[in-house]
Specification:
Elements lengths: L11 E4 L5 E5 L4 E5 L5 E5 L4 E6 L5 E6 L10 E6 L4 E7 L6 E4 L3 E5 L3 E6 L5 E6 L9 E2 L7 E5 L5 E7 L4 E9 L3 E6 L5 E6 L4 E6 L4 E7 L7 E6 L8 E6 L4 E5 H12 L2 H5 L2 H6 L5 E4 L9 E12 L7 E12 L3 E10 L4 E10 L1 H4 L2
Antiparallel strand pairs: 1-2, 2-3, 3-4, 5-6, 6-7, 7-8, 9-10, 10-11, 11-12, 13-14, 14-15, 15-16, 17-18, 18-19, 19-20, 21-22, 22-23, 23-24, 25-26, 26-27, 27-28
Length: 365
């Protein structure tokens, strides 16, 4: 691990909807990178921004200023065209914008106690969602048009999450996930699964969105830790991998597909047949693969699973014997890292650092 103890000059870091690109903002500028090659694709020296949201690899960005310059108010959303190098439209709000999410048809703007849904093409406001106070702008968004959901906290005293159907413009469900308030939420790209972590940070829970039922619980650790990010691997069905980063400096990977296989085997056993589901659930193996000290303790980080490959067994074509995942990580101390995580059918894993580079020379250039 490189020395990552330098003070952060990164105001925001975000990946686009398919994790093919990422954006970094500093005090003086923002920059767009290609996740696969690390190539700098676009840069603009225009001041400090706290939100730089991409729409896949298109020329549309959603920008929110940090308020350090009079022209960059945190209450103003600018839709910016990178090809023209100019704003397309600006939207002003009464309070600071805390998060912005987009897909090809919808624009979602999260404020402290309200969330607005717009038609992205016409910028007509479609709905206003009243929420509990959400000072961190905590939210999750699935960009799929077939399963497009938004998730925001539903309580300030416990880990309840409101799931809202962004295309149908109606509340879908409310899930009681944790006893403590939420610290992190993630939706799978297809909108089928939601992962949550509380402020305790010891348990990661995964629910099936359509039925609002708990599918899995994974233990990150025994001692409390702040969860900085949660991210599912890409999939049209159940994602194979769920990734988490925390204040401990470790990257945590949970193998959902292998957990299913093991649960199926257990359910056919005598023990599985006599135990109720709730007790049987608690006996699930952790399926937890940790990369210790990937980042210095306390340094905020953001990880995504960019790609997963399933390797089938030779004895049975339908038997998956191993999973290989490409994990990309941005640290707020200014580093980009890419790892290959390999997990075999015995649930044994290995992490390989494929590349690492310092973003500071690029940010400060």
């Amino acid at each position: 691990m490189a020395n990552q103890s330098s003070p952060s000059s990164i105001y925001c870091a975000s990946f686009n909807q398919d994790n093919s690109g990422f954006a970094i903002s500093s005090r003086d500028s923002f920059k767009i990178f290609d996740s696969t090659t690390g190539r700098l694709c676009y840069e603009r020296a225009a001041g400090a921004f706290v939100i730089v949201e991409m729409l896949y690899s298109s020329d549309l960005l959603a920008l929110v200023g940090a308020g350090e310059q009079a022209s960059l108010s945190p209450r103003r959303l600018c839709l910016f065209n990178t090809t023209r190098g100019s704003p397309l439209k600006e939207l002003n709000f009464l309070t600071s914008i805390l998060a912005v999410r987009m897909n090809k048809k919808r624009l979602v703007v999260v404020l402290l106690e309200k969330t607005f849904v717009y038609d992205l093409n016409t910028l007509v406001m479609l709905d206003t969602i009243d929420t509990v106070p959400n000072p961190k702008g905590l939210c999750a968004f699935s960009p799929s048009l077939e399963g497009c959901f938004l998730a925001v906290p539903a309580s300030t005293t416990k880990g309840a999450v409101l799931v809202y159907n962004v295309m149908d413009l109606q509340s879908h469900s409310e899930i009681d996930a944790h006893r403590s308030p939420l610290a992190a939420i993630a939706l799978s790209s297809n909108g089928m699964y939601i992962a949550t972590a509380s402020e305790q940070g010891t348990l990661i829970r995964v629910h099936l969105v359509s039925e609002s039922t708990k599918s899995y619980s994974f233990r990150r650790g025994t001692y409390p830790s702040t969860i900085y990010s949660l991210s599912f691997g890409p999939s049209t069905q159940l994602p194979e991998i769920l990734i988490a980063t925390s204040s401990s400096g470790s990257i945590h990977a949970f193998s959902l597909m292998l957990a299913i296989n093991q649960r199926s085997k257990r359910s056919t056993s005598f023990l599985g047949s006599v135990l109720p589901d709730s007790v049987s659930d608690a006996l699930d193996p952790a399926h937890h693969h940790v990369l210790q000290n990937a980042v210095s303790s306390g340094i905020r980080s953001y990880a995504v699973v960019r790609k997963t490959d399933k390797l089938e067994g030779t004895s049975s074509p339908s038997q998956v014997t191993s999973i290989r995942a490409t994990v990309s990580l941005i640290t707020y101390s200014g580093y980009f890292q890419e790892y290959t995580l390999s997990i075999n059918n015995k649930n044994e894993s290995s992490w390989t650092l494929e590349r690492e580079f310092n973003l500071y020379p690029v940010i400060n250039s």
